[in-house]
Amino acid sequence: MARVRTGSVAALLPAAGSGTRLGRGPKAFVEVAGASLLARSVACLAPLVDEVIVALPEGLALPGGLPARAVPGGPTRQESVRRLLEATGAGVVLVHDAARPFLPSRVVREVAAAAREVGAATAALPVADTLVRAGEGGGWGGLVPREGLWAVQTPQGFRRDTLAHAHERALAEGFTATDDAGLVARLGGEVALVPGDARLFKVTTPGDLALAHAVALLWDAGGDDA
Ligand code: CTP
Ligand code: MG
Fold first, then answer.
1. Longest Cα pair distance anywhere in the chain, in angstroms?
2. Which are the contacts of 199, defined by CB distance < 8 A and separation ≥ 6?
3. Mutate to test the pocket of ligand 1, among 97, 100, 208 (most ligand atoms within 8 A of CB)
4. Before 155, cis peptide (omega within 30)?
5. Each residue's pLDDT tens digit, 156-187
């Protein structure tokens, strides 16, 4: 582990995925309006934290000029985050998917503050759509009441020891999750829900990439206020 600096904040970016659903190679390197998803995510975080660390796919190097350092990612997102955690001694860590390139500074500040106070926090949005479970034939099975349901985004913020403990337990017990707050919650830890932002969608499919091109026009003109 790096030297312990309990007062500092590190941004940890899992960016080691292969981007299978997008189909354009390693996703973090895909460009939207002249800047990669990774460069955009790093640019949103770097001014607000003490250090930025990125988990990269095997054999790929950090592009020049990014204010970050890199570690090799793992075969799963969870393992990539575990390696990122090992690379910092910061007292508070913000884990953010490189695949979410539009990150308002308001969300970063609020997640970091809630993480300090509660121990764990995530950006999330109340679900707006009607939810339905598919039936056996693939059609409409039944309504799922959306009241009280939130869709989880990143960044997710943690006191470093809280997240490190949750990862150790998950590894020892062979448990995998698609996010980090879930690892804390399964141990009974409190996780604060911080209002996220519609622009924090994850670029997962070609449709999301088209949306990202549209959002980039506004974002690059107006930043957070777009
Ligand atoms: N990620 C990672 N290491 C992995 C897998 C994923 O660091 N072994 C990162 C991705 O780079 C991404 C984030 O975790 O920033 C969310 O993952 P996802 O959207 O699933 O990205 P990919 O795994 O690249 O996409 P796909 O599942 O379509 O292959
Ligand atoms: Mg994936």
1. 56
2. 102, 104, 215, 219, 226
3. 97
4. yes
5. 999 999 999 999 999 999 999 999 999 999 99
d(CA 209, CA 64): 24
Phi then psi for residue 157, to 5 deg, are -115, 145
* Other CB atoms within 10 A of residue 213 CB: 11
Share above pLDDT 90 across residues of the chain, in percent, rounded to a whole number? 95
**Ligand 1 centroid from CA 140, angstroms:** 30
71 to 26, 56, 79, 83: CA distances (angstroms)? 16, 6, 12, 7
Tokens of 123: 């950006």
Residue 158 exposed, middle or buried by CB count within 10 Å (0-12, 13-18, 19+): buried
Q: Is the CB of 202 under 6 A from ligand 1?
A: yes
Contact indicator for 199, 219 with CB cutoff of 8 Å: yes
SS3 152: strand
121: its two tokens:
């926090």
DSSP code of 3?
P
